[in-house]
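In response to reviewer comment 3 from the previous cycle, which asked for concrete evidence that the modeling workflow produces usable outputs, we include below a single protein chain processed end to end. The sequence was submitted unchanged, and the resulting structure tokens are shown without manual editing.
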Amino acid sequence: IMAEVELVKLLTETISLHAQEGTILFESKLQRAVVLADGQLLKRIFSNIILNGIQAANPGVRPEINIRLGKNETRYQISISDNGKGIAPELIDKIFLPHITTKQSGSGLGLAITKQGIEQMSGEIRFETSQKGTTFIIELPQ
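The workflow returned the following structure tokens.
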């Protein structure tokens, strides 16, 4: 259900759900950022990306997730970065396809649903990855 969603509040709530699983830092120059979106789906999307980041941590390294919220002329931009091992080169082109997973458990539907959900909200999602971690960038119309 599309409705007005306040991103600062939604991100803060989502972060508090995962706070004990790693170090999660949230940086926003905005006090308020309202988008027309499916709030429940957006919360699941942010949760999924945060969890993926936590699970991508290298053995013996405390997961660190950096979340930033900013905006340009027409869109809000949310970037979620982890300090994990990055996405394997052979998976980069397939990461948003259904049933692609690098984990023991899980359906591999998370990022496929994420991409579909963001696009339904007229947004877009992309990522950058290296051996030092991965950053997902989500843009949603203001």
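The chain has a mean pLDDT of 92. We consider this sufficient to address the reviewer's concern, and the full set will be provided in the supplementary archive.
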